[in-house]
Design goal:
Number of domains: 1
Order of helices and strands: EEHEEEHEHEHEHEH
Strand content: 15-25%
Number of helices: 6
Number of strands: 9
CATH class: Alpha Beta
Structural class: alpha/beta
Distance between the termini: 34 Å
Strand order of the largest sheet: 1-3-2-6-7-8-9
CATH topology: Rossmann fold
Radius of gyration: 16 Å
Largest sheet: 7 strands, mixed
Amino acid sequence: MKSFLDCVEINPDKKPQSCVIWLHGLGADGHDFEPIVPELRLPPDLAVRFVFPHAPERAVTINFGMKMRAWFDITDTEDIGRVKLDEFGVSVNQVRDLIQREITSGLPAERIVLAGFSQGGAIALHTGLFYEKRLAGILALSTFLPTAETVESKAPSANKTTPIMMAHGQFDPLVPMAKGVAARNLLNRLGYDLEWNDYPMQHAVCPDEIDAVGAWLKDLLARD
């Protein structure tokens, strides 16, 4: 029997009509974004299921080798976009397994949103761009795209028109906004359907951003 990542799950009062799989950042866990669900103010009739997986624990080089929940190791603060692609690929496959679990349960891929913050955003963005079935949307917050050079040549067309929302803090000292802007510019050049927002904050989320995400999800998930 296939094993899945442990997850925090929030289910609607009726049968789910859509699902948001939301990945946390370095050193956090699936509970990190759990409190955001009521702040999104999504109408109950949308019947959205939220899945917040816990990343595996691994040694993180920039934190002196301490073990913590991380989607991949970070070895160089000067080049935050350089990652170990083997570790990155393992996490991508674990998220793909979670998508397939939702599909097997009866939700079509086009009713599934991938979301993530920081490290989790990098995994969500890559997984969504390279997924072979069309998803409902991709939400990438305070993040970057370490596989940017492969998108044009290797990403399938399934999610070329999938709505993408990116947001970033203008004063982010951990993932500089320039990294997010580079991903945005690439996807814009390639013709992806992308909305961008930036805010006067550091490596965080803010109320205005939460409001924007809630409005984006409401519009996205209200579509037939």
